[in-house]
Amino acid sequence: MKIGILGTGLMGRLLARKLAAAGHHVKVANSRGPESIATDVLETGAYAATAEDALDGVEVAILTVPHTGFEKIRHLVAALPEQTVVIDISNYHPGRDGVIPELEAGKVESEWARDYFGRPITKAWNSIGMASFETQGRSKGEAGRIALPVAGDRKRDREVAIALVDDTGFDGFDAGMLADSWRQQPGSPAYITDLTYDEMGPALASAERDRLPRRRDIAAQVFEERVGERSSPDVETVVRIARALFM
Is the pTM of this model over 0.85? Predict the structure, then answer.
């Protein structure tokens, strides 16, 4: 597929590498221009581009930027053709993003993003930690393969996202409509707990919506205390803490 990725943080870099290695035509952009994109991002075949060029003529657009970066790309995403699959991988963290009143009032993050951009949005890859995404991908059918929930209001969009999740080394799990995507937000049993496909359904069903924000904020404090200045905790630390707090 023709895929444009906006954002070259760790998740954006890994998505570019994994999806290009899987045979997709991938263009990747950041806010600093194509010349600033590290060569390792392009080693498996992705192309550096401006944000405008990255989204030109693509079938899938993947947003790997935090909410603070949405304003800069709003006009580009809103202008995409209706049939383009737009996948948002972001999560709301008020300590990083600033307070968004609608989300503080309980609006589902993905529905807020849908309304912000004024077009259909699919949620995927937001529920896995960066260390796990980098190191824990497995071949389809391999025992213990991690599952990632995919939510969206259009069935075809979910199907496309699920297939791409599979291409990155994980089982895509159809999590239904955006209205239920809060079940994969930070603080939920499905969030960074590295569950298998068979475990994912019960985890999503057991989520308690009112408890998610507090659990998210407690987890942020625990990770900060546990890892100090390290920007990316190891897989075992992330999963152990997440399962203790969220499940």
Answer: yes
Over the stretch 146-160, which tens digit does the pLDDT of each residue have? Answer: 999 999 999 999 999
- 108-162, pLDDT tens digit by residue? 999 999 999 999 999 999 999 999 999 999 999 999 999 999 999 999 999 999 9
Q: How far apart are CA 142 and CA 171, in angstroms?
A: 10
Are 196 and 170 in contact by the 8 Å Cβ rule? The answer is: no
Please report, for residues 21, 55, 73, 215, the alpha-carbon distance to residue 78 in angstroms, rounded to integers and kept in the order given.
29, 11, 9, 33
